[in-house]
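Long-time lurker. I teach an intro course on protein structure, and each term I like to show students one example going from raw sequence to a predicted 3D structure in token notation. This year I'd like something fresh instead of my usual example. Would anyone be willing to generate the tokens for the chain below so I can use it in lecture? Attribution to the forum is fine with me.
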Amino acid sequence: MTEIKFGTDGWRAVIGDEFTFHNVKKVAQAMADYVLSQKGILKYRSFKIIVGYDTRFLSDKYAELTACVMASNNIPTIIADRPSPTPSVSYAIKDKNLIGGIVITASHNPARYNGIKYKAYYSGSASPVITKKIEGLLGINEIKCKSLQELKESRILTAENIIPRYLGFIKKYVNLNLLKKTRLKVLADPMYGTGNSYIEDLLKGGKCKVDTIHNEINPGFGGINPEPIMPNLKELADKTKKNKYAIGIATDGDADRLGVVLSNGKLLTGHKVMTILLLHLLEDKKMSGDVVQTICGTVLIEKICKKYGLKTHETPVGFKYICEIMQKEDVLVGGEETGGVAFKGCIPERDGVLSGLLILEMMAMRRKTLERIIKDIEEEYGTFEYRRLDMRIPDEKKNKLMNYLKNNPVKKVLDKDVVEIKDYDGYKFIARDRSWLMIRLSGTEPIVRIYAEAPSEKRAFAILKAGKRVVQNI
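-- Reply from a regular --
Happy to contribute to a lecture. Here you go:
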């Protein structure tokens, strides 16, 4: 049996293979032991934990098991009474001053996967230090797991709808009254996940028209991966263009990432989404602070930060690293190339629903289409096209690939000399014209990711093709 290891964000595995009821209880017991170890340290927090879950196959049952293990270890436990967005669980930690939280989800991964994320007392992804401690507690103590009925009767385990308080916060952060006065026509796609019809619900009662597709529970996700990228969003893109919607908005399986489709059916990259959100908070909402990107972040945001004199931070891939900086610094926006973004004045956690509403707010405040907003950005800062390619490779090839790149670094990105190499999370080769190629192993799936950014889409695809050849030749 494969050793249980926490990756980029929690532990994920194939349902019925490694992700079994026994292993879920084993991980839950280790998390319970960790929580118990923090009781005397985090005295200012309420000694209580919350367990949430997504719409995947058996997620509700895995959540019940996890909650039972926590409560059986004398940890007062709240379990969400319905599938809930990951940011709603993290918000509940802050709202109720809890010691931590657990989410049963594999986020954007294929339907055959499930997973467990631990959310720390600060309402964000567990740091590498915390996950290492949890891993070290696996199998140390005997699993305690009383029946759900017994624990509910003793009231150490209670069920609660955490959605209203979460949506209540969003109502305060976004000017919904302004949005309801606009005549925007919006198509929302929660991708059968926990995003449900919350964007539509929040904007009811006004002139803004929101239609929602794929808001029913479907553990198979309609045969696609619940990741807001192409080709998974083809139906959203086609319907947005055909039915003349101003914008299409998609959230991933646990609603912490956002995908955005323009009225012409074109999907924006996660970099463009984060750029738009940064400029909205900076220019429209008059907010300020630092900006955090990962190693595969965009040069476009670097240029914006330089213009406004904003301090920037760069991290390895994984929101847990962004979260760490958001706790220590005055951060305006922290985000990833995948469309997961967190904001100042919220919690250090990605939020797809909030991100989508903020983009609509920007369109309303500027009285411009999203296409016009993007054109304005390109006219001032230039064009930056980002693309990513995922390739499955055998396990035995992974280390060989990384060793090869270490000993045989790429000398040119197409015809441009490499002037800088970053090697702290995969290998990123930066050319003289600031275009770049990056190759790294995924922390959640058995794949290698190839990333590229260049001044044109054609050049970005050419860089990806060159990166693919490097991987194939190993």
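Some talking points for your students: The domain at 174-381 is CATH 3.40.120.10 (Alpha-D-Glucose-1,6-Bisphosphate; Chain A, domain 3). Residues 128 and 320 are 7 Å apart (CA to CA).
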